[in-house]
Every structure is written in structure tokens, then in C-alpha cells.
Specification:
614 residues; mainly beta; Methylamine Dehydrogenase, Chain H; four-stranded antiparallel sheet; 51% strand
Length: 614
């Protein structure tokens, strides 16, 4: 019998269909779209609908992109340059400067990259770069057309050059110009405060009227005309760059860039949104995939997960999720006494199946918002602007004072955190309080293995066996820790930048790779796995902490059972011939992974095997 690491080593993205990092630049080339953004993100798509994440040599922001001279070039921070022939395999370099690069263009055998603090970098081979120290203004965009490079920047600052060495510069007398493109023998520049300008030579610019007030961030040209996008959720189109019409994208988006290729317009945003259109006149469809959050809380019962937030979802396995339209109490949810209870703004709702929800009523509920709920000792406690209690989830009573958020229940004790005060109660009605042991903000608390653990800002972790006397633990991080849960012998903590920490004793902590770099707010254990939820609709799920696979040798009839249990807590292998009476098939508790061989019994009854938590 051999042991190995368990399911906490593996975390799987369940929603949305791709990691929702911000996207800031988009181009089409070599029959594919390439989008880049936060954390070195690189996505590719042949159709604008289905996107694949690619390995990137960078973990910093990529803000500019061009396809020219047979290759993609992405630029970003700090002075970063990445090149790829196919958008899949990337090489990394640097212009020799640490400032942010915002845009890059190619023309007449010359690459020009521009960025913050008047950064202008020039190269003929995409490897060796020369810098032009001319000023201090931030430069946002560069394009090449009609034999000229045109650069736009802060305050309408504009530069024009035929050789990327000698520049003519002036101001359009406008707000920031964020993007510029060239097509149909005209330059089109867009920017803040609905700014749209056109020019045939890059020197003389004419303002154009926008059909919508917006801060435009991207512009492109395709077969049916120009398209410009903005944050938030504005797309305008024009057949000639002069006459513009507003379009309404499905689902909205905080758009940053737009491109055209393979008969499609595609726009991306820093909220990870992606929309497409086959013609500038047609609707722009949202093809992001998955549900957008944020999500605030999660519960499990009746063989179903329920998560609440700006969108509320349900799932039978934590993998495939569906929207629930009937929940309006979307701040917190719990399962107890055979029902789900959800609380929110002026609302308490209950459900037996997680799908159909019924409003509950209480005196004073219409005047308050509730942000948390807990169940223990046959009592529900809901807290927010006030505290309500119920023995059954249906009949609610407001009690005189707030108890605190967050809460945990264990060892027949409620423990609540209320700012700089910690309160403890055995019945949820009478509370003993003490000053908090820390000035850090406490955002999560859980009970397991005979102790309470609470987590908070700057990596704070504190432990207590009675809820009143606390000892600080070292989390080995200064990131804000948002949530904590206990299951199968392990504590799991989540927080900023996708951090996940695990521990079997609350003392020694191990960092796990969540696969995301966005904030996780809440973590929950049920059905043999942990689920963490957070910003931008994030749902990540750990590997199963108990798995059982069986295979039989045909000749001997010997049954081999491949077992995977929580390394810190273990499980028992049990067998039954009638699904009612179960006996241990293994003499000891199993930790981690193992293979167990079982000789069939002499009777003809079928043997069923299961894993059981101790």
C-alpha cells in the first residue's frame, strides 16, 4: 500500500469556460484571432467563438498587439516584447526599458512600440531596440498607414513620422486619444469624451460626431466598415469613419479592443468579455461562455450545490452549472433541516430543492439587508444590519443586537466576529464577548479538528479551541485571506490573487496552485471536494478527496480497488452484499492513494464497495 498526494493538489476551473482575466489587445493574422491581457494571458481562436489559452513567457500585463511581417508581436510591462509566428509558441524579449508599453505597429520594415512617459522604441528585427527620449507624455497608440507612423496619446498629443526617427508632433486639442487605425485611405482616431477624429495625412484632423457618449478604447476596419468600442458597453460603427451608428452588444462588456478577420468582428474587454458580429449592422453576440459573477456564498444539500451572487447558480456535481432565476436573496446561503435558506437585501428565502424558492417574512426584515447565515444547535442565525433567528427557517424573530459577521459553529458553540470584538454563544441568544486579538480585518472563520480558525487581512490566521482565547499562526503570506473551510481533515483558505492555502493542523500551511490570479472570496466543502468562488464568476473545484475505482481479473476473479482518500484525514473501505449492512474491508484507515485487492467471497451475493469518512 503506497501513499501519495490527494485532491488538494488539483484545482479545476468550473466557471467561466476560461480564466476571466482582463483582455486589452486583439489582432487577426494567420487565420486566427489572438487576444492578450492581464497576467500574461494569451488566447487564440480561429472563429471568434471558441478560445484556447496558450502558454505565455510572461505573468505581467500585455497591453498592445500587432500582426505584421508574418508574426504576432505583443508588448507590455516592463518594456516587454513577445513574438510568435502562430500565436501559440511565444518568445520573450525587452526593449531595454522598464516602462509600460501600450501599443506596437509595423511599416516599411520598422517596428515602433510606444508607452508610458513618452516611451518610443524602434527596431528593424524585433530583437534589438533603440529608444527615443523626447518627452514625458504618455503615449497610448501607434499605427502605420499611407507611408506614415501616427502616434496618439494623453491630452490629444499626436506625432507623425515617415521613418520613425524624425517626428512632427502637435495636439488635436482634445482629451486622451486611446486608439488609432488606418483603412480606406483615412486615419481614424478615438478616445475619451466621445472623441472621434479623421485625417487623410495624419497631420490635419477633423472631429466627427459620436452617436453615444463614451470613452473609446479601440477601433478597427473590416469588410463592412469601421467599428469602435468603449468602456462601458458601447459599440459604434461607420461605413466611412465619418457617419457613425450605435450598436447594442448582448450582455454588455467593458471593451478595450476590436479586430476583424475571417468575416467576423470581435471585441474584447478588461472584464474578459468577448462579443462577435458578422457585419457591423448585425447584433454583437456574447460568446464568453459560462456565467459572470461575482459569487458571494455557496451551500450543498439535497444532492445539489447552490451559489448566490449577482447571478445564482445550481449544480449537481460542481462541474456543470445552471442559472436560478427565482433567488432574490443573493448575499448568503446555507443548508440545514432539509432545506436551503438564502438571505439578502430585505429578503429571506427557503427552498427544499434549491430550484424553487419561497419568500419568508419577519417583522423588521423590510428595513434591513442580511449578509450572512449560519446553522447550529437547531437554530438559524441571519445577520447584517440586524440579526434574526429561527428554529426552522420559516418563522423568524429579530433579536435586540447584531452578533457579528463572519460566524462559525463547532463544539456546540457559535463564534462571531464583529469588528474588534469576538462573541461566543452556546444558544445563539446569550453571548460572551472579548476584544479581538488582532487589528486586522477578519473575513472568514471555520471549525475543524477541535479548533476554530479565523483568517483576514495581511495573511492573518488565528486559532482557538474555545472561541475566546486565540493564538496567531504563520500563513507565510501577506495577501488578504477571505475565506476558510474544513473538510476531510484539511483546512482550506482562499484569498486575493487566487491564493489557496491548506493545512491539516492549522499550524503548517502549504500553498496550492489554483490556476487563477483573481480574488477568491469563499470556499466550501461538500461531496468530497472543495469549491472556491469569487470575482468575475470564478468557480474552481479541488480534485475529489475520495475516489474509488474497481477492476477484476478475469481468470482469478481477484478485485483490485484503486483508492484515493484525503491525505490528512483518511477514509475506510467498506463492503456490503445488501446495501444495508456495511463492514470494513480494510483493517486500518487509508491515507492518500492505495490499491487494495479483495478475494471474492464463496457466496454468490454481489459485493458492493464504498469509501467512508471516519
Amino acid at each position: 500500500m503506497t501513499c501519495s498526494a490527494g485532491g488538494l493538489d488539483e484545482w479545476h476551473l468550473r466557471n467561466p469556460n476560461r480564466v476571466p482575466y482582463g483582455l486589452y489587445a486583439l489582432r487577426f493574422g494567420n487565420n486566427k484571432f489572438v487576444a492578450v491581457g492581464d497576467w500574461g494571458t494569451v488566447l487564440t481562436s480561429s472563429d471568434g467563438f471558441n478560445w484556447v489559452s496558450r502558454a505565455s513567457p510572461s505573468v505581467t500585463l500585455l497591453d498592445g498587439l500587432v500582426f505584421a511581417n508574418g508574426k504576432f508581436m505583443a508588448v507590455g510591462f516592463p518594456g516587454l516584447v513577445m513574438t510568435s509566428a502562430d500565436g501559440t509558441t511565444w518568445n520573450s524579449g525587452n526593449v531595454g526599458d522598464s516602462r509600460m508599453l501600450r501599443s506596437v505597429a509595423f511599416g516599411d520594415g520598422i517596428y515602433v512600440a510606444v508607452g508610458d512617459a513618452f516611451t518610443i522604441a524602434v527596431s528593424t528585427d524585433a530583437v534589438n531596440w533603440s529608444l527615443t527620449p523626447l518627452g514625458s507624455t504618455d503615449l497610448f497608440s501607434v499605427c502605420f498607414g499611407n507611408g506614415k507612423f501616427v502616434i496618439t496619446g494623453r491630452g490629444g498629443f499626436t506625432m507623425v513620422s515617415t521613418n520613425a526617427t524624425n517626428w512632427t508632433y502637435f495636439s488635436m486639442g482634445s482629451p486622451n486619444i486611446r486608439a488609432v487605425t488606418f483603412a480606406r485611405n483615412v486615419f481614424v482616431a478615438v478616445g475619451d469624451s466621445s472623441s472621434i477624429f479623421t485625417s487623410e495625412n495624419g497631420l490635419d484632423w477633423a472631429p466627427q460626431e459620436s452617436p453615444a457618449y463614451a470613452w473609446f478604447t479601440g477601433v478597427t476596419y473590416g469588410d463592412s466598415g469601421f467599428a469602435a468600442v468603449s468602456d462601458p458597453s458601447v459599440i459604434i460603427t461607420s461605413p466611412d469613419g465619418t457617419n457613425w451608428t450605435q450598436r447594442l452588444p448582448d450582455g454588455g462588456g467593458l471593451f478595450t479592443a476590436v479586430a476583424y478577420g475571417n468575416g467576423k468582428y470581435v471585441a474584447v474587454g478588461y472584464d474578459s468579455s468577448i462579443v462577435t458580429a458578422t457585419n457591423i449592422l448585425y447584433p454583437w453576440r456574447d460568446y464568453e461562455g459560462g456565467w459572470r459573477g461575482p459569487f458571494y456564498d455557496i451551500a450543498y444539500g439535497s444532492n445539489r450545490f447552490v451559489t448566490v451572487g449577482s447571478t445564482s447558480l445550481t449544480s449537481s456535481n460542481g462541474i456543470t452549472w445552471f442559472a436560478i432565476d427565482s433567488i432574490r436573496a443573493n448575499e448568503a446561503v446555507i443548508y440545514g433541516q432539509g432545506k436551503f435558506i438564502a438571505v439578502g437585501r430585505h429578503a429571506i428565502q427557503t427552498s427544499l430543492d434549491g430550484l424553487n424558492w419561497i419568500d419568508q417574512f419577519a417583522d423588521g426584515l423590510a428595513d434591513v439587508s442580511l449578509w450572512s447565515i449560519i446553522f447550529g444547535n437547531n437554530r438559524f442565525l441571519a445577520d447584517g444590519d440586524a440579526t434574526f433567528t429561527s428554529p426552522d427557517g420559516t418563522n423568524w424573530t429579530k433579536i435586540p443586537e447584531r452578533t457579528g459577521i463572519p460566524k462559525a459553529f463547532g463544539a456546540n458553540l457559535f463564534v462571531a466576529i464583529d469588528g474588534d470584538v469576538i462573541r461566543v454563544s452556546s444558544d445563539g441568544l446569550k453571548w460572551t464577548q472579548r476584544p479581538s486579538p488582532t487589528s486586522e480585518n477578519i473575513s472568514g472563520i471555520a471549525y475543524g479538528n477541535g479548533q476554530f480558525l479565523m483568517v483576514g487581512s495581511r495573511g492573518a490566521i488565528f486559532a482557538s479551541t474555545n472561541g475566546l482565547d486565540w493564538i496567531q499562526r504563520d500563513a507565510m503570506t501577506d495577501l488578504w485571506l477571505n475565506g476558510i473551510a474544513f473538510g476531510q481533515g484539511s483546512f482550506v483558505v482562499v484569498g486575493w490573487n487566487g491564493i489557496i492555502l491548506t493545512s491539516t493542523d492549522g499550524i503548517s500551511w502549504q500553498k496550492r496552485d489554483s490556476g487563477v490570479r483573481l480574488d477568491l472570496g469563499t470556499v466550501f466543502f461538500a461531496n468530497n471536494s472543495f469549491l472556491a468562488i469569487g470575482a468575475h464568476g470564478l468557480i474552481v473545484q479541488s480534485g475529489s478527496l475520495m475516489t474509488l475505482k474497481a477492476h477484476r481479473e478475469i481468470d482469478s476473479g481477484l478485485v483490485h480497488l484503486d483508492i484515493d482518500c484525503a491525505a490528512g484525514y483518511g477514509c475506510r473501505l467498506q463492503t456490503s452484499t445488501n446495501l444495508l449492512d456495511w463492514t470494513d474491508a480494510s483493517p486500518t484507515r487509508i491515507f492518500g492513494s492505495a490499491t487494495f485487492s479483495q478475494t471474492p467471497g464463496t457466496d454468490s451475493s454481489p459485493h458492493v464497495y464504498r469509501l467512508s469518512s471516519p
